[in-house]
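help with this record:
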Amino acid sequence: MDSLDALLSRLFTLHRKTIELSLGRIERLLAALGSPERNLPPIIHVAGTNGKGSTIAFMRAILEAAGKRVHVYTSPHLVRFHERIRIGTEGGGRLVGDSELFAALTACETLNKGEPITFFEVTTAAAFKLFAEHPADYLLLEVGLGGRFDATNVISWPKLSIITPVSIDHPEFLGASVDKIAFEKAGIIKPGVPVIASFQDEAALAVLRRAALHASAPLTVGGQDFSAREENGRLIFEDVNGLLDLPLPRLPGRHQHQNAATAIAAIRYVEPGLAQDVYERGLAQADWPARLQNLTKGHVAALAPPGAEIWLDGGHNEDAGRALAQAIADIEDKAQRPLIVVCGTLASKDTAAFLRAFKGLAQEVLAVPVEADQYSKPASEVAAAANAVGLSAVACGSVELALRFLAAREWRVPPRILITGSLYLAGQVLALNGTLPE
């Protein structure tokens, strides 16, 4: 009998050579499964370039603080596939279990009958089957790639659509300009279904406005219809329903204030009248691994120089680089720690654009490969990209070797180490550290 790992490995080899964005394959499989996408709880559908996962994390925490059962579908996973599928339960959700995941994936593979299909499509179909089998109050559904032809876009009538900040990423599939990418993201907008657009580039916002107008979909825009600002160590949120004076989000970084604001605006729409303390508890409880995650214990932490800080983030595009650099610069630092960036990226990413924001902030970049990923950019190329934007860089064979390299030096002040450049790299670091997302 197959093991779950063997089944996932076999499915992962499906249709891998190119990504052909289309809905036909998953529609066929879902029909064979009995159309579970028609039996889902109210859906909040989330597209965008950056901030999708964090916005979903805030929404989940707020809804769960209100006593709601919340299904969650996100991608990619960091360490285990199970992270992609969270089943809503009383008192908080749980990651899908081995036996139920195996059963759902086996049913999808059997009913697909060897027809062409992608890994994301078949696993999305399995997720819909699982979500339809468990009652919940909401499904928070993250787009995998783009929006218009993403497998999640087979749903016909979400409760709400959200589009987080749009910027350049996956240009080989979505287009090389912000307006073209925004057009693909806007594909999740449905006739008459309200849309919340997070704080956007003007070019992206213009595209989203046209799409919403064409679909007669009411549009709420961050920075215009709702806002968030920090005052005296508090997050002040304001929209047409009034003001909320809240604690700063648990997730660090100024960019998370905007993600939290988008989440609050969404929940104020779907659950009007929630007490302020629900939002307070939600912001305090929200958790999203590998987003400026401070690693203080574990194998990776033990490899670093004594007293060093280690931060882990899966950012990988230009806008994420700017937000991350700003967040690192904002960390209070009386000791004036030198910043070392350990960076690994995929071959498809613009590494120089991602690292540019760290010029003048990072003392050095240690370039590493994203291990066990055939699409990894060689460490030498990552180092060359760092050099190209004025950063001193050294190529290392792995994150572990990079940390040992740093530990062998003498430090007047222990460094701050940021490991970043890819969610896949972040997942490998969490696995190496023994820190499994829950």
Summary: The chain is about 40% helix and 15% strand. The mean pLDDT is 94.
